[in-house]
Amino acid sequence: MGAQSPRAVERERSIDPEELRTAIAAVESRASSSSDLPPLAPEAHEAATAALRLLRHRPRSEHELRERLLTKDHAPAAVDEALERVRIWGLVDDADFAAEWVRGRRRRRGRSRGALERELREKGVAEFHIARAVSDIDETDDREQAAELVRARLARRPVDSGRGADLQGERRRLVAFLARRGYPTGLAMTVVNAELAAQVSP
């Protein structure tokens, strides 16, 4: 297999999980003589190999990788060297990670902007990367996303408009459903009330 320059890999952007696995395979199959980088120290090589195994499962933030490698008893200096090499290979980039995390969690789970920000902070992503990743999401977007979630939920569980107790129970369940996805209580109640009213109207 022809060797791909580490610098070329570094320039690739927004690596999704499948592309990441392909990039890892390219790195692992590259002959040492084809690389323009010096060999890693033995301990750093072990840490870099462990990092590639972790990344094969899913993209990770640099903080996540560092923490996992340290918990596997790799020496801090070896982890630093390994992560520097992984960055050069283009396999970890917190800006891309944050952008992909927001796209995926928004699309698959309907997470609110606030929830996405909290999740990225928990993964050790820097605030300026987080701000950029969520910059296209405002309160109107959150309200529209919440309404779509509620409509989809109601389509699966129609409300009986003739039973007020059930309607109240449905309202509580839907507000709790949105809260679990990070939507503020006020916004959740506004959206749920509007969608329930639309459903029970003649």
From TrEMBL:
Q: What InterPro entries does its record include?
A: RecX_HTH_1st (IPR053926), RecX_HTH_2nd (IPR053924), Regulatory_RecX (IPR003783), WH-like_DNA-bd_sf (IPR036388)
Against PANTHER family, the record matches this protein to: REGULATORY PROTEIN RECX FAMILY PROTEIN
Q: What is this protein called?
A: Regulatory protein RecX
HAMAP family xref list? RecX (MF_01114)
Tell me where it resides: Cytoplasm
Function text: Modulates RecA activity.
In what residue span(s) does the RecX second three-helical domain sit? 93-133
All copies of domain RecX first three-helical, residue ranges: 49-85
What's this protein's family per the entry?
A: Belongs to the RecX family.
Q: What is the lineage of its organism?
A: Bacteria, Bacillati, Actinomycetota, Actinomycetes, Mycobacteriales
